[in-house]
């Protein structure tokens, strides 16, 4: 498990996952595994030498209209719920309620002071 305070995952958020997949496949050599999302859609797990190295998330639907393409890093934290309270008290904005992804972890999506996006995750063991 990734230790508290270390980067755990990186995810490319895009309206055009096929373009992003082609770019990274051609330039870096990534291959992909499709994972069905609970709410529908596909999450693409980027692989290098059969090892997951990141993900590609299709930003579609309500709430994503003004989200530009870009990388979203995720930090591992020891307790998302406690850390989010501290982050909000320190000036961060919680973008959506904390949520669980089965077999992955408990996540929060924040805008830190200054506006940069950051994901926090307490991975499930």
UniProtKB/TrEMBL annotation:
<protein>
    <submittedName>
        <fullName>Glyoxalase</fullName>
    </submittedName>
</protein>
<dbReference type="InterPro" id="IPR004360">
    <property type="entry name" value="Glyas_Fos-R_dOase_dom"/>
</dbReference>
<feature type="domain" description="VOC">
    <location>
        <begin position="6"/>
        <end position="123"/>
    </location>
</feature>
<dbReference type="InterPro" id="IPR037523">
    <property type="entry name" value="VOC_core"/>
</dbReference>
<dbReference type="Pfam" id="PF00903">
    <property type="entry name" value="Glyoxalase"/>
</dbReference>
<dbReference type="InterPro" id="IPR029068">
    <property type="entry name" value="Glyas_Bleomycin-R_OHBP_Dase"/>
</dbReference>
<dbReference type="InterPro" id="IPR052164">
    <property type="entry name" value="Anthracycline_SecMetBiosynth"/>
</dbReference>
């Amino acid at each position: 498990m990734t230790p508290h305070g270390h980067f755990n995952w990186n995810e490319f958020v895009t309206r055009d996952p096929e373009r992003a997949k082609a770019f990274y496949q051609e330039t870096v050599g990534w291959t992909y595994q499709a994972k069905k999302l609970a709410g529908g859609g596909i999450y693409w797990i980027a692989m290098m030498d059969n090892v997951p190295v990141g993900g590609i998330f299709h930003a579609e639907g309500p709430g994503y209209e003004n989200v530009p393409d870009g990388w979203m890093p995720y930090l591992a934290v020891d307790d998302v719920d406690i850390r989010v309270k501290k982050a909000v008290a320190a000036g961060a904005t919680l973008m959506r309620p904390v949520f669980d992804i089965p077999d992955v972890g408990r996540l929060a999506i924040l805008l830190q002071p200054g506006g940069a996006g950051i994901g926090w995750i307490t991975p499930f063991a």
